[in-house]
Amino acid sequence: MMSIIKINSKKISGFRPTNSRFVLALFWIMILFQLTMFKHIWVIRGPARFFNLVSLLMVSVYAAHFISSHRFNKNVWNFYILPGLFVFFGIFLNIALNSVRDLKVMNYFGMMLPWAVYLAMPSLLKNNTCDSETLWRYFYYFMLAVVSLGLLEYFWIFSREPLLRIIFTPGGEFLAGSFSILYPLQGGSPGSRFYACFGEPGSLAMFLLPAALYAYYHKKYIGLVVFIAGLYFSKSFGGIIGVAVIIPLIFFLATNKRRIHLFIAVLVLILASSVLVMNYGGKILSVYEERVKFRNVRGDTFKNTMKNLATIIVNNPIGFKFEGKSASASKSKDYYGSNFRPGNALQMGGISAFLGYIFILGVSLMVAFLSIMRKGLSLEEKVVFCSLIVLFPFIFQREAVWDSAIFAFLFAPSIIRFLQSRDNVHRR
After folding, report:
1. pLDDT tens for residues 373-385?
2. Mind listing the pLDDT tens digit for each residue in 10-53?
3. Would you say 200 and 193 are in contact if contact means Cβ atoms under 8 Å apart?
4. Residue 128 region, left (φ>0) first, then alpha (ψ -120 to 50), else beta?
């Protein structure tokens, strides 16, 4: 039965959708003002806040209108929309209640924008106003441009007298060029890890992995070489794990038969990679990074969060308190860091956001593994479902693709189409 399922959007709707101006504007606003550090590099924080606020209001109203007034596929509602509502309203409630105490906390409403886009995606697809295949192409060329410019600037900095300036961000101080940032070492000299325009080398690696998969499957080998270079200079342990997972996945999809023992081998590799990240990432990375200090807190964050989960929920059922400039979670005895993303959802939106986030992760992996067992995947499906598996270990760092609007624009459409197709099969 699995082999006859057709998920491609053109086969479901009868014609290929197109991206509306609304979708394209949202896509580039998300990339420029939320995904990257350009608002800090180019000192455009004011316009960034304005566009983020307007986008949040527009997308939230759009999603609320269509969710309340239109009927959706049963699977899409149960396995996609409902858990997204849990996350959205959990975070909204916590920020809203804290805003009554301190109006400056309202700045945190920007965290809800990716989840508003997530909830709007089923309606955008239903109205044929979102073409994810085209958005993937735009994302590829964007990554190619910023990584290429970043690498050129990177080599220029270390080969000549660098002209860098200090910028202040919520993540700390950085040295900024025109298109990229670097971490300042003691004494003010730039660190050797490659950031490009992203807030962390790990975040850069996280977005490079799906871009590299896109380049591979679309035979864009120059872009693939650029992305591999970016991964190498980022010195990201998550990037190393990702490459180690990508290789067997590519071979697995290349086989004519989806053999169960190969499937199990891939699954075991994913689980083993996650264990490595949690427990040994710091030790391995300290060797790989040479003189760059790295503190291994990912394993402790996960273990302490899960060990004390009941206590955290009882003490903070709607999430941790916020302050005007930063979350006050670090002042709580129940705070164990933000490197475990479901735990971070618990801090931001309480039990509601935690359950919704866990469910979304589970659905994403389930859809990915079931899909790679099928034959006849489109190029977009290969990129999406392989990427979801490869990116899973990144839930043990400070940012995961599920926390960004990129998940809604690039990954969610394939998940939604899969859920729709499964419901259609059961009705036959």
Report:
1. 888 899 999 999 9
2. 444 456 788 899 999 999 999 999 999 999 999 999 999 999 99
3. no
4. left
Phi-psi region of 2 (alpha: psi -120 to 50; beta: other; left: phi over 0): alpha
**Per-residue tokens: 71:** 């009927």
Q: What is the pLDDT of residues 323-356, one digit of tens each?
A: 655 444 445 555 656 678 888 898 889 999 999 9
Residue 258 zone, left/alpha/beta (φ > 0; ψ -120 to 50; rest): beta
208: nearest Cα among 365, 6, 35, 418? 35
Phi first, then psi: what are they for 247, rounded to 5°? -60, -55
Q: Are the CB atoms for 397 and 202 separated by under 8 Å?
A: yes
Mean pLDDT of the chain: 84
Alpha carbon distances (Å) from 18 to 14, 21, 28, 32: 13, 10, 16, 22
Across 238-260, average pLDDT? 80
Identify which of 272-276, 340-344, 355-359 has the greatest average pLDDT: 355-359
**Residue whose entry in the numeric block shows the structure tokens 């009705």:** 427
Ramachandran area for residue 327 (φ above 0: left; ψ -120 to 50: alpha; else beta): beta
Would you list the domain boundaries of the chain? 34-427
What whole-number distance in Å separates Cα of residue 391 and Cα of residue 312? 27
Other CB atoms within a 10 A radius of the CB of residue 300 amount to 17
